[in-house]
Specification:
This protein is of the alpha/beta class. The chain has helices spanning 6-9, 26-37, 55-63, 85-93, 112-124, 144-149, 173-186, 213-224, 229-236, 241-249, 253-262, 272-280; strands at residues 13-15, 45-51, 72-78, 98-106, 133-137, 157-161, 190-193, 202-203, 209-210, 263-268. Helix content is 40%, strand content 17%. Helix 6 (144-149) links the parallel strand 5 and strand 6. Helix 7 (173-186) packs across helix 8. The longest helix is centred in the middle third of the chain and has 14 residues, at 173-186.
Length: 286
């Protein structure tokens, strides 16, 4: 049975409107997120992302909103490492206007296991929230594979940085394929952040070589089906959007489930742009 349509993209797009290059003001990003969640885009929209340093600002903005409705599902990023984790989690859990959907904590090279332990401990406090996830951002470099393997059995997922505001922040196809292969080989699910603004591999006006999320979805499938890191790198380099969309459309419902069990979501500063890409490629109905 072929069923790779909406299910493949369900809750794939975490709302990172506050982060570069979008840098939306807090007072605009929150109502825009609520609008997405109330629109036809809702099935594809994940939680709202905020850095721990901006939690106080977010709570202030929400306190002024007398008609905010249900709690805002929130994922907190903690780029400074595990030392800032407990305070961030406490700040969210103490506010009835917020619901903790997850945390993402950066780990220095070689410290993934200790960071994962801190993440799991913090998320388990007071019983934890059903469905809340903990991610450890794996540092790029020679220790990345060992750090991914260190997450096995911890209950934490991996997070890979796939771009940024500098050219060197974007891993090559070979580097990203190696990270994906290590995660899938170890049975560690993952998310991505930064640089996946569009469906297909492309070069930006600034000259950045950016990965496409369709490429990453298909590379994940290739690896789950027994392909090599070299096979995945070839898929990551493919710039033929129609061909990629056709290949993805051929996935069965079981294959879609396996792909999304591994590649859980990615943060994007625009919810509209990636969905528009899918519409243009014929992968989603407008």
């Amino acid at each position: 049975m072929r069923d790779s349509g909406p299910a493949l993209y369900r809750a794939l797009f975490d709302d990172a409107a506050l982060f570069p290059p979008g840098n939306a003001p807090m007072g605009e990003a929150i109502p825009a997120h609520r609008a997405h969640r109330a629109s036809r885009r809702a099935p594809y929209v994940g939680p709202f992302l905020v850095a721990d340093a901006r939690l106080a600002e977010l709570r202030t903005v929400l306190s002024r909103d007398q008609a905010h409705g249900e709690p805002l599902a929130l994922v907190v990023t903690v780029p400074g490492g595990a030392d800032g984790l407990a305070a961030a989690v406490d700040a969210v859990r103490s506010d009835p206007a917020l619901s903790l959907a997850g945390v993402e904590v950066a780990a220095a090279p070689g410290e993934a296991a200790d960071t994962a332990a801190a993440v799991v401990k913090a998320m388990a406090g007071d019983g934890g929230e059903p469905g809340a996830d903990g991610y450890v951002e794996v540092a790029r470099g020679e220790k990345a594979t060992a750090d991914i393997e260190a997450l096995v059995g911890t209950g934490a997922h991996a997070k890979f940085r796939t771009g940024g505001v500098r050219a060197e922040a974007h891993p090559s196809e070979t580097e990203l394929a190696a990270l994906l292969a290590a995660a899938i080989g170890a049975g560690v699910s993952f998310k991505c952040t930064a640089g996946l603004h569009h469906a297909v591999r492309h070069t930006t006006a600034e000259g950045f070589e950016q990965h496409g999320f369709l490429n990453v979805l298909l590379a994940t499938h290739i690896l789950l089906s027994g392909g090599t890191a070299a096979d995945a790198a070839e898929v990551l380099a493919d710039r033929d959007g129609r061909a990629l969309a056709a290949r993805v459309a051929g996935l069965t419902s079981e294959q879609v489930e396996r792909v999304r069990s591994s590649f859980r979501s990615f943060g994007t500063c625009s919810i509209v742009e990636p969905l528009d890409d899918l519409v243009v490629l014929g992968a989603l109905n407008p």
